[in-house]
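Limitations

Structures in this collection are predictions, not experimental determinations, and the ligand pose is part of the prediction. Treat each record accordingly. The example that follows, with adenosine-5'-triphosphate as the small molecule, is included so readers can see exactly what is and is not provided: the inputs are given verbatim, and the output is the predicted complex.
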Amino acid sequence: MLRTMKGPIISLRGITKQYPPDIIALSDIDLSIEKGEFVFLTGPSGSGKSTLLKLLSCMERPTSGELSLDDFDLTNLSASQVPYVRRKVGVIFQDFKLITTKTVFENVALSLEVIGLSSEQISKRVRDILELMGLASKTDRYPPQLSGGEQQRVAIARAVVNRPSIILADEPTGNLDRGMTNEVMALVEELNAEGATVIFATHDESLFAHTYRRVLTIHEGRLRA
Ligand SMILES: Nc1ncnc2c1ncn2[C@@H]1O[C@H](COP(=O)(O)OP(=O)(O)OP(=O)(O)O)[C@@H](O)[C@H]1O
Ligand SMILES: [Mg+2]
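Predicted complex:
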């Protein structure tokens, strides 16, 4: 369903998520995120960070409450609209899944094939992002031939290659060393500077210890001020 009201790009009102049979992963969450904002999301293991990002990427549905993203009312979204939401959202997940039978190039190109670019345009964009992620020499390899950190960078390249207006990052630097972590942060910062709204979930306090940005802390499914 399309929303018509103007407002924050992401809005949650009284959102609760219960997994069967009785696990309350999120409880009565109210949250607004403005277009172009970059917010960190932190909290202990099991507190609900990934669940919150899964609701925003339509991988899970809320049990109750209201949820909107850009012009979409995710509370009443029809299945046919899910691809349109996904096109706006670049998701970098903790448990990223690369297709093991496709090359690095093909894994990243998949995100662009659905939006109708020419093969020349796709090739240029994929090569540019792989270059940026330090993966140019791995273009024709298969995921099992890469290290964990390299695979994670391919997943990041795949998530951002179509320049999504919203980036949901779930512990994207978990497998990376400090140098690569800093490069990923710089890349996300750059996409944010170009206008993307970012939610960045992480345990790594050093990433937000000195930030001027909003840091959301979640505990047992509840947001803390
Ligand atoms: N598919 C599922 N089915 C049942 N319970 C789930 C499911 N996914 C998550 N949970 C539970 O919901 C709660 C929140 O999990 P979630 O993955 O959102 O936490 P998290 O903050 O991302 O943790 P981590 O930092 O370890 O990634 C946990 O108690 C978890 O066990
Ligand atoms: Mg998680």
